[in-house]
Structures are given as structure tokens and as C-alpha cells.
Amino acid sequence: MDYIIEGFKKAFIIIFSLDKEFLMIVFTSIKISFSSIFLAALFGIPFGIFVGAGKFKGRKLITTLLNTLMSLPTVVVGLLLYSLLSRRGPLGDMGILFTQTAIIAGQCILAFPIIAALVAAGVRNIGDDPLIAARLLGAGNVGSALLFLKEAKLIVITSTLAAFGRVFSEIGISMMLGGNIRFYTRNITTAIALESSRGAIGLGIALGLVLLAVAFLVNIIVYRFRGEEL
Amino acid sequence: MNRLKIIFSFIVILLCIFIRFTDAEETLRLATTTSTYETGLLDYILPVFEKEFGCEIHVISVGTGKALRLGENGDVDILLVHAPEAEKRFMKDEYGTDRRYVMHNDFVILGPEDDPAGIGELKKSTEAFKKIYASENIFVSRGDDSGTDKKEKSLWARAGLYPRGAWYLETGQGMNATLRVADEKRAYVMLDRATYLFNKDKVRLKILVEGDRDLLNPYGVIAVNPLKHPHVNHRLSLALVEWMTSSQCREMINKYEVNGDRLFYADDNSPVD
After folding, report:
1. Sign of the C-alpha dihedral computed for residues B118, B119, B123 and B129 taken in this order
2. pTM surpassing 0.80?
3. Is A156 exposed, middle or buried (0-12, 13-18, 19+ CB in 10 A)?
4. pLDDT surpassing 90 at residue B13
5. Residue B255 covered by a domain
6. ipTM of this predicted complex?
7. Total domain count, chain B
8. What angle (nearest 5°) sits at the alpha carbon of residue A199, between those of residues B205 and A74?
9. Which of A102, B97, B122, B156 has its CA 20 to 30 A from that of A50?
10. Numbered residues of chain B with Cβ closer than 8 Å to any chain A Cβ
11. What is the CATH architecture assignment of A2-226?
12. Interface test mutation site (partner A, options B3, B58, B231, max chain A beta carbons within 10 A)
């Protein structure tokens, strides 16, 4: 028990003294996950709307594919990109293995299907009604698109946050593509893995608390957007 | 709802993200073993080099087997590893240049205090392995093709044994993690002395066999060959090879202590076969 209490004590000291290494790790995590979520949302949201609202052949197949990819294991993404990005691989000349860019690319692949699939499912539930109403009221293409986005706002936000939760807490991609380089690609999850193998749980607990706090924050935001009280 | 605020904070976040994307300084990628990195040695010595040469060293800490493969693939510029046989093969295949011994320590065999296999009195590591094999007490192995793993496998082979069975556990993880598993299971384990000393206060296992000449553990540095991989930073790699075998660095390595124990012994600047 002493061991755990000692760990928590150290964790609080690290958090409240704003330990430089601790802050750097948290900052790296935030920077990388924000970048990947931004990019994944940029492509995932329009694609999700397209799949959810569009009427074309093969829509069912794409939906099933997206749903399957939603549970893509991080180590599979890691392995795939690793073999592509290694100097031996077809994209080796880019030289981005073991950089933040590599992690971002991997996390994008992880987040894209989640955002696209959730947006598609949500948009389908909205149905055609708002669009038809807009047309009847004389709105043009841009007008109806804007109206549609307004209807879909909640879906877009909750989908993006769901993907963020997954990306922020994943470790497989960060470890395999980032290499856990100190002050560069070491993020919250890879640092926790390293610290626990070193047997020093203080920093690990501090970082774990940040992960929990972020998850909590994300949920609060979702609640707020739904207009519900906690 | 104050939309402006949201948009504004979004822009600020984006700026933060993209501004810091560029790597201003020259970087060097060093693949190394868990025993040199997780014991804190590299964090202790490398900043001096980084300052002197105005560069940033990205340390990727993996097992020796993986480190050598990263070198073969050209994914790193320089290696610090400990598997002499594999290193020689690496050099023979012309993947590396300028291999030097940097330092050494030794491997030790740990086990639970009551020593159920009775290896405590033995001098030879192979004899100890034979007794562990016969007793079928749990033995925890790295199983990850690291330098320690290669060494352990070679000792089993020299003892004429092929460990297999429910008592022989392979973790596939780094040395620290493997030691944790061995400690939790009150098992036997072979590891480098640096990792043991680093964890001395945190584990209950005791050193049972040490001092066998077969248990010597030399660490070598190798620059990746620019003829195989033109993009590697060979100039800076050579500078690091020189620096790691310099008297300044030797002194630092010899001075590095954890809990009052010296972990590594620097070697003189002799080129090796």
C-alpha cells in the first residue's frame, strides 16, 4: 500500500510543481492528437455526410466498411505505417518514421473511420425532412447545406470528440511510429508505459490523472452541447 | 452562445500546433538498448554532446536486435548496442562503419532468496542454467532478440539445453519490465548488472551467480554506413563515435552512479576487429 500512496504523493508534487518533463509530455500529447483530429475531421466529416445523406450505389458497402474500420486495432495501423515509412519501405524517402508527423498520420487513419461512420449514422437519422423543408421555403443549394450542417452540428461535435478520446488514449501507434523519444515523440501513454516498466509510478500516475481529466472534460462538453445538465 | 470565443480559441490552438512543427536543429537518431537508456545513462551523458555540437539526439530505446534492424534499414544514424556476434555480422554485411567498444559491465543471474534450484554456490553460468532446467523453476526470459536475450540463448545452447515448457516464460519486453515480471513470479532471470543496480531497491530477487567470464557484457557504438544509406547524418555520427570514446565521456561514464552504485565501466579507445 505504501508503494501506491508514495506514488500518488509524487504524482501530486509533479503536477503542482509544474514539472518541466511532465508539461512537455502533456503538451506533446495535446499537440499531436489535436493535429490528427483536425485533419481527420477535415476529411471525415464531409465524407460522413456524403455517405450518410447521399444516395448512390455501394453506400451500404462503404457504411459496413467504415463500421469495421472503426474498431481498427492501433497496432495494426502502427505496423502498416511502419512498414510503409521505414527507409526500406515504399515511402521511406520521406524520412518521417520516428517523428511527430508519423504519429499524426497514424492517428488520422485511426480517427477518420470513427468520425466518418458516426457522422454518417447520425446524418441518416436526421433524414431528408430538413432538406425538403428548406427547398419548400425556397433555399438554394448553399442555403440548404448550411441548414443541414446546423441540424448535424451536434452529431459532428460528438463524433469528433469520440474520435479524440480514442486518439488521445491510444499507445500502439505512438510507440511504434514515434519511438518514444524524450522531449519529442514521448506522449502521455508511451511515457506511462516507460515509467511503469522503470518501476517509477509517480510520473505515470500524474499522467494517468491528466488522461482521466481530459476524458471527463470531453464528456462535459458533449453534455453541454446536448443541452443536458450534469 | 459566444461563437467568437470558440472560433478564436480554435485559431489559437491551430497556431500553437503548426508553429512548432519545424525542427530547427540538426538531429541525430540513436537506436540503443533498454539497459543504457532506462538506467538514465544517456540522459546523463548525451546533453553534453548536444550542447557542444548544437544538435539534438533522438534516442530510440529498443532491444539490440531491433536496433540493428533499424540500422540495416537506415531508419537511424548510429547504434549503441551489446551483442558482439551480431555486431560483427552487421559490420561484415557493410551496414556499419567505425565500430568501437564504449564500455562494459557484466550479466548476473538473479533468483529468489530461498533459491529452489540451488544455484547460489555455482561459478559457471552454464552449470546454473543446467540446474534451473532440471528444477523446472520459473525462469523469465526477454524473448525479444535483444542483446541480453541473445546472450541468454547462447548460454542455454552452450549448456546443451533447449528451454521449453511452462516454467520458461518469454515476456517480449524490455529489461526493466522483464525484471518486474521475474520479481512478481519469484523466478530466475538473467540481466545486465546496470539494470539490476538501478532496480536494487525495488526488487526482492538476489544475485545468485556472478563473475563468470562468459557473463561479460560489452557495449559497442556503430555508425550506420552512408554508402548503404546516403541520407544518414554520417558526419555527426562520427563525431559522436569519437566523443563517446573520448576521455571526457569515459570519465562521465565511470562517474555515473545510481544509489551509490557504479553501473558501467568505460573502455579505452580501441577499434575492434
Report:
1. positive
2. yes
3. buried
4. no
5. yes
6. 0.77
7. 2
8. 125
9. A102
10. 13-14, 16-17, 20-21, 29, 38, 43, 56, 58-61, 73-76, 173-174, 176-177, 180, 199, 202, 229, 231
11. Orthogonal Bundle (1.10)
12. B58
